[in-house]
Specification:
alpha/beta; Aspartate Aminotransferase, domain 1; Aspartate Aminotransferase, domain 2; 2 domains; 11 strands
Length: about 350
Amino acid sequence: MIEPRPAVLSMAPYSPPTGNRIEKLRLDFNENTVGCSPRVAEALKNALTPERLAVYPAYDGVKESLAAYFQTAPDRFILTNGTDEAIQVFLNTYIDDGDEVLLLRPSYAMYRFYAEVAVAKIVEVEYPAPGFEVPVAALLDAISPHTRAIILSNPNNPTGTGVDLDTIRQILDHAPNAAVLIDEAYYEFHGVTAIPLLHEYPNLFISRTFSKAFGMAGMRIGCLFSQPANIAHLHKAQSPYSVNALAAVAAQAAVTDSHFIASYVAEVLESRELLARGLQTLGIPYVKSEANFILTLVGDRAIPIRDALRGHAILVRDRSYEIPGGLRITLGTVAQTQRLLAELEIIWTAKTS
């Protein structure tokens, strides 16, 4: 065996349970639960020709379309292979061995994953239970002259809690010498974006993804935004063809169907209210969410409830390994949420009665 780098040796593997999910109600990975826009599927069919598949991808057309959709300029973002590559390129561009990266916990596992690969010095600030509101004061206190990068998910996964633009301004103002990445994977369900701040803050970076509201998790495409000078540096640290041609075609088609996105988001927001009311009725504690999921706090029953729901072909995500009693439930259509609540009521009351 060839010995890997010490940073890799000391890392825990990230192995999400992704097998055998297609035929089940997928309320575990915060994906779109109905699929992508029909325009995306049609565009992909038209793109699946032997000649087009033989050519390296070109991004000019898709970048112009996405720039118009995001109301920015093509030189203010790069295409990325999902949010994961956005995080990786961001850290590869700005972090050297031993540089300090400030994270919050619990949050998206890939922030720490790529920071560890970069051999960063990781400083973490805890989300306080039981409400898991963003710990603004503690986060600001943790910023030091040694802070080289900060990553914040807005809203946060797995808690669902978000922040407003004033809070983001505070963070940027407190860390003028740090690169600050705001991950807006769940923007469509929250409605707060820092994109209008890009022209004010040269240390601001924003990631978006097509994996959630757009229903394109399988395509692996996202965007990383910043000022043009920063984008030029990010390009240097990125493989030139990391986004495949079909993903680019899919993204370009997706942004033409604003009705599809608006309709799905509206239904998810209705489901969010429905699930919150249902949890209140059952007496199940939960965290108020700004995203397309709700984190429930079910004590030592997290894994038994997850397994019982799986027996009825409903998948939810156990997060009790980092949040005591944490069980995260993705929100889909109203009918899907009603099905989940019906099964959850039987499981919950059978044990508590």
